[in-house]
C-alpha cells in the first residue's frame, strides 16, 4: 500500500516526520520504504505556499476504510482542518494504492484518482519500486 504525505503549512518537515512516525506506529501496519522529500507546486490553482511531498510504502492487515480512518486521525493530530477544498494544510495523507485493489465509494477511491495527473506521485512510486 502506498500513502502520499504532503504539507504546506507550519514546519512542513516536522509534519511529515510526525506522519511517518505515526503511520509506523499504527497497529497492523509495517512501514517498508520511504521516498525522498520534494518541494512541489500547489495543486488546484490557489495562491498558497509550496508543498513538501513524500510517499511511504506499508503492508497492513487493516481494511482500506480502517486505514483511511487511521490516516485521518493522524492528520487531525497534526492540526489538519478541512474547511475548503484545495486549501493549505498542515498535513495531507492520501491512500494512493492499496495493493491491486480497485475501490470507489463515497469515502475512498483507490487507486487514487489524482495519480495520473500528479507527476511527483509517479516519481515517488518509481522510487518506491526501486527500493
Layout of strands and helices, then pairs:
Blueprint (H helix, E strand, L loop, with lengths): L1 E6 L4 H14 L3 E6 L3 E3 L10 E10 L3 H14 L14 E6 L5 E2 L4 E2 L8 H12 L1
Antiparallel strand pairs: 1-4, 1-5, 2-4, 3-4, 6-7
Compact summary:
By secondary structure, the chain is of the alpha+beta class. The protein is built from three helices and seven strands, in the order E-H-E-E-E-H-E-E-E-H.
**How many domains?**
1
The CATH C-level name is: Alpha Beta
Work out the helix count.
Answer: 3
The SSE string, one letter per element, is EHEEEHEEEH
Helix coverage percent? 25-40%
So, CATH architecture? 2-Layer Sandwich
CATH superfamily, called what?
7,8-Dihydro-6-hydroxymethylpterin-pyrophosphokinase HPPK
Rg from C-alpha positions?
A: 14 Å
Amino acid at each position: 500500500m502506498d500513502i502520499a504525505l504532503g504539507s504546506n503549512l507550519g514546519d512542513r518537515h516536522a509534519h511529515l516526520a510526525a506522519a511517518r512516525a505515526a503511520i509506523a506506529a499504527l497497529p497492523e501496519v509495517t512501514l517498508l520504504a520511504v521516498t525522498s522529500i520534494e518541494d512541489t507546486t500547489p495543486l488546484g490553482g490557489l495562491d498558497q505556499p509550496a508543498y513538501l511531498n513524500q510517499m511511504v510504502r506499508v503492508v497492513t492487515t487493516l481494511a482500506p476504510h480502517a486505514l483511511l480512518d487511521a490516516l485521518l486521525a493522524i492528520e487531525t493530530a497534526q492540526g489538519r482542518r478541512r474547511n475548503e477544498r484545495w486549501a493549505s494544510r498542515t498535513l495531507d495523507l492520501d491512500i494512493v494504492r492499496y495493493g491491486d485493489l480497485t475501490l470507489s465509494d463515497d469515502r475512498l477511491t483507490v487507486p487514487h484518482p489524482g495519480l495520473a495527473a500528479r507527476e511527483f506521485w509517479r516519481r515517488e512510486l518509481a522510487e518506491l519500486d526501486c527500493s
